[in-house]
Amino acid sequence: MAGVNKVILVGNLGKDPEVRHLESGSVVANLTLATTEAYKDRNGNRVENTEWHDLELWDGQAKVAEQYLRKGSQIFVEGKIKSDTWQDEQGNNRKRTKIRVLSFTMLGSKNSEMGAGGSSNPNTMSQPNAGNPQPASMPSSGGNIEEGDDDLPF
Amino acid sequence: MAGVNKVILVGNLGKDPEVRHLESGSVVANLTLATTEAYKDRNGNRVENTEWHDLELWDGQAKVAEQYLRKGSQIFVEGKIKSDTWQDEQGNNRKRTKIRVLSFTMLGSKNSEMGAGGSSNPNTMSQPNAGNPQPASMPSSGGNIEEGDDDLPF
Amino acid sequence: MAGVNKVILVGNLGKDPEVRHLESGSVVANLTLATTEAYKDRNGNRVENTEWHDLELWDGQAKVAEQYLRKGSQIFVEGKIKSDTWQDEQGNNRKRTKIRVLSFTMLGSKNSEMGAGGSSNPNTMSQPNAGNPQPASMPSSGGNIEEGDDDLPF
Amino acid sequence: MAGVNKVILVGNLGKDPEVRHLESGSVVANLTLATTEAYKDRNGNRVENTEWHDLELWDGQAKVAEQYLRKGSQIFVEGKIKSDTWQDEQGNNRKRTKIRVLSFTMLGSKNSEMGAGGSSNPNTMSQPNAGNPQPASMPSSGGNIEEGDDDLPF
DNA sequence: TTTT
DNA sequence: TTTT
């Protein structure tokens, strides 16, 4: 009965986050993420295959997404599969699957346009804290994103 | 462009595998897997939430599933999200998401009724070998599974 | 700078958990977990390879481990790699690596001896709650572990 | 007996790959990868914690690493934990743990200086093909990686 | 609809 | 030291 339902994605956003601020005070962000794999077919031709994922983020995560993510952003995502089922007007059973994001991390060098290397760290950003307002700076990486730190260990 | 699309599941099969042997010689198995999470709601009541996943296995993997998996079997699954999109009769865009299984492992302790603990090991069972016929014994675990138990180990 | 450090293991405990109750009130459990992979070598002989992992659990997780896990228990583990570095008496740099467990799930059928299907669910058991005392029953699965529930969905 | 031993990392290389071409024809690359997590301590101060991982890649993977990875490169890694055990001169049992890389993906946005986004795709680069020589271009992504960027982006 |  |  114990279960594990885990999704790990690295890809790029297809468009800017769509964020809704609910009357309840909750915030929801919807993202579309492309994961592309490339391989050679039997004829040696390069084939590219893109899968589009619908991501849903809540509250603190949603706010960070709203502030830092943009169309094209590359992110690492950890979450779980969550599907809605309902009956349509014709009485057919319908199912729609999305990824409930539990944490995400911005990828790319610190020199990229939006700042970078930010992380919605599981320790500080995941569910239990989801209701907390997020600081203006990137959580758990924050502070020095936009500052020049020349003493990086690399 | 580099992408990662990875799913990890642990759950139980909702029914026996449905296996089709195609004219091409390929074999496809479809499984439904339940992953259950339980938590306490705000009132301290235990709530259980089950997500049903549609799994698809091919060739060698499908044959192992056909032979060893049954309704109720607990398995560890690694795969990727794969969705089909099409237009229905009303011209609406439709999307159906399933998990393409890349490897799976049977779970269960030696003390449990079902014995078992076979593995469709990535090294021997994953895509590159998917076209190879599988031996009657459980791959990469084999040995004593086939020893006269006509009643399946589960 | 954003980083991901994630470990996923399924294996069996080499011995009973070793649990220490610290003066601070913290509880630490140390487990050894074997993950075995089997493959055929070039000669077609079956080869088995076992890796032993040192796991460390804290507080709530440690208590659950103490209560429910035993030598031979099969578990799913999610955690991160954590290494200690120091200098030994000869002045050599030394490093020891272990897995800091963030959540784990007991595997095996409902009929197995120890009860089963328990889960130290991330939502209820992970870091943020780590200091909370755990109920005698298995968290987030609890209650009905030892009771006959014939209406299981499988 | 069925086991799972999986590691997923996202981090930056601490130095250029160290590559050895063995007499046997095999190629080994050793990398050091830093995964950094940041969090706020009880006093609200930001704390940063870096874990260094020793990675080992073989053959095709090693060659790709040699050609494309440099100190500071950000990569996604999938692999498994592998430890060596031996006795030192004093007769003490020693153990050293490293990550055997099964696949890796270069990260970085299109806006970052080095371009990039190559992938050692599991489908084309993982174990079963490890002995195959790699093309000069980045497998399943290629292109603009090699364009003379001597000033590292970090 | 992203990215290369 | 586990498990099969």
Automatic annotation (TrEMBL), chains A, B, C, D:
Plays an important role in DNA replication, recombination and repair. Binds to ssDNA and to an array of partner proteins to recruit them to their sites of action during DNA metabolism. The keyword DNA damage applies. Residues 119-143 have a biased composition (Polar residues). GO terms for molecular function: DNA binding. A motif (Important for interaction with partner proteins) lies at residues 149-154. Residues 109-154 are annotated as: Disordered. NCBIfam families: ssb. Pfam families: SSB. This is Single-stranded DNA-binding protein. SUPFAM superfamilies: Nucleic acid-binding proteins (SSF50249). The keyword DNA repair applies. Homotetramer. Keywords: DNA damage, DNA recombination, DNA repair, DNA replication, DNA-binding.
